[in-house]
Amino acid sequence: MEDINRLVKQRIEKYDAMKTEMGVAHFPNTYRKDTDVSAFTELYQAHGHDELLEVKTLHHMTGRIMAMRSFGKAAFIHFQDATGTLQAFFEKAKLGDEPYSLFKKLDIGDIIGLWGTPIKTRTGELSVYVQGFELLTKSFRPLPEKWHGLKDVDTRYRQRYVDLMVTPEVKQTFLLRTRIISRLRAYMDSHGFIEVETPMMQPIAGGATAKPFLTHHNALDMDLYLRIAPELYLKRLLVGGFERVYEINRNFRNEGLSTRHNPEFTMMEFYRAYADYTDLMRFTEDMVSSIARDVLGTEVITYQGTTIDLSTPWKRYTLKDATVEVGGVPREIMENRDKAVAFCKERGFDVTGSETLGELQLVLFEQTTEDKLTGPVFVTSYPTEVSPLSRKNNEDPSIVDRFELFIAGREIANAFSELNDPFDQRERFAGQLEKKEGPSEMDEDYIRALEYGMPPAAGEGIGIDRLIMLLTDSPSIRDVILFPLLRKGEVS
Question: pLDDT tens digits for 51-87?
């Protein structure tokens, strides 16, 4: 830290001298560019050395200095803007004594405006032959050593602004994130869905089983919860007459952090009237595979060394069959509560012995099978007691019409045919409250909405962060969230 503070002090003193002795403007905001790096490169990359000598057009550009090489009366820099990196050639004979003297006082990290013409060096590298420049922003802190990026993972997440500057792969990940979400929106819009916004602060924490964040509204003197999920509000819109709705936004869950979990995360939830969960399986596999084709140019991807083929159709398992065939749990264990309790306890799974058979089946699936589902695979037929908002199956009321999508051993999506029977829904809410799971109180308004009549429908939630992890080959959710939640750290 002492070295950093010393360098910062030196740069501050240098900047003060540049202003007082050389007339450098203090953080000016009048320079305007007319060309970016990618446009310049596209325009001139194919031209030869002799052709470029004939170009007299001045291009005004901006960027951050990322590297410098000085040869006395001439120097090269690499500068970077939002579109890429380019070399620039500064020559004392062209700039003059005073401007070149100012140039020699610039540091790596400084943001400059420069104007010049295209040239190619002896090695064939496209460059800007600088005719003039202006210091736009002084960088008082040095960038990480030698432009090789931040090595410490914790520092990368805490100082994402530096990480983006010096690690091109990180910037590419977040550009891909933007393209993926944009493509998701385009897909939904093209299928007749409308994008809506529902409350982030809710009087009742509902729509999923998770621990909420609690806050307080002073003017109304009432507690509110940051939403766990937008589900119950989106389904109110089905009651109101919207037949296809979706929302891409944040959810908040006051739970642990891991490579797969961040307390604030992005979900897309969508609801479609007059459809069931099987319709959404077909819809989802087409949506994800088409996004992969559009954004990555292929349906066959590699995630952490494993090849995954996203081409359709995708495999389907019932939860029971997946646990038996993939997880290796004997079928008689899945069909007998006492045997399931004994099996779980023998293997140290977190059970009390009071669970229902359906609850034990979910434990067995999660503990033995989930991480083995390379996928993509839809797992269906979840037990009714672990699916409080799902419609019961007509032939077997012990299961619901639901699926979860697994790819690379991770849940990517959760969907089901919606429960629209208000009496059944009240009974399920009451069961949750009795077990102190899910909502903090009975959501009477949601029950009232169902009493007006919600059309038969299906709905789905997709974990956007996990989908982007998959499509960008990122091992941790923190790699795809610009500013992930971290413990408070020191600022140096």
Answer: 999 999 999 999 999 999 999 899 999 999 999 999 9
DSSP 303-372: ETTEEEE-PSSPEEEEHHHHHHHTT---HHHHT-HHHHHHHHHHTT-S--S---HHHHHHHHHHHHTGGG
How far is it, in rounded angstroms, from Cα 178 to Cα 175? Answer: 5
Mean pLDDT confidence for 15-22: 94
- State both tokens at 60: 């005004």
> pTM score, two decimals?
0.90
Two structure tokens written together for 408 = 């690379």
Superfamily of domain 2-143: Nucleic acid-binding proteins (2.40.50.140)
Spans of all domains in the chain: 2-143, 166-328+369-479
Residue in 445, 440, 399 with CA at minimum distance from that of residue 422: 445
Token digits of residue 241: 């007459």
Cα distances (angstroms) measured from residue 461 to each of 149, 234, 262, 271, 414: 35, 11, 16, 9, 5
Distance, in Å, from the CA atom of 87 to the CA atom of 67, rounded to the nearest integer, reads 9
What is the band of 147 on the pLDDT scale with cuts at 50, 70, 90? very low
The length of the chain, given as a count of residues: 492
The backbone torsions φ and ψ at residue 78, rounded to the nearest 5 degrees and listed phi first, read -110, 130
Which CATH number does 166-328+369-479 carry?
3.30.930.10
Q: Give the model confidence (pLDDT) of 237-262 as tens digits.
A: 999 999 999 999 999 999 888 888 89
| Beta-carbon contacts of residue 290 (< 8 Å; ≥ 6 apart) | 187
Quickly count: other Cβ atoms within 10 Å of residue 177's Cβ: 23
Give the separation between CA 167 and CA 139, rounded to whole angstroms: 18
Domain 166-328+369-479 in the same topology as domain 2-143: no
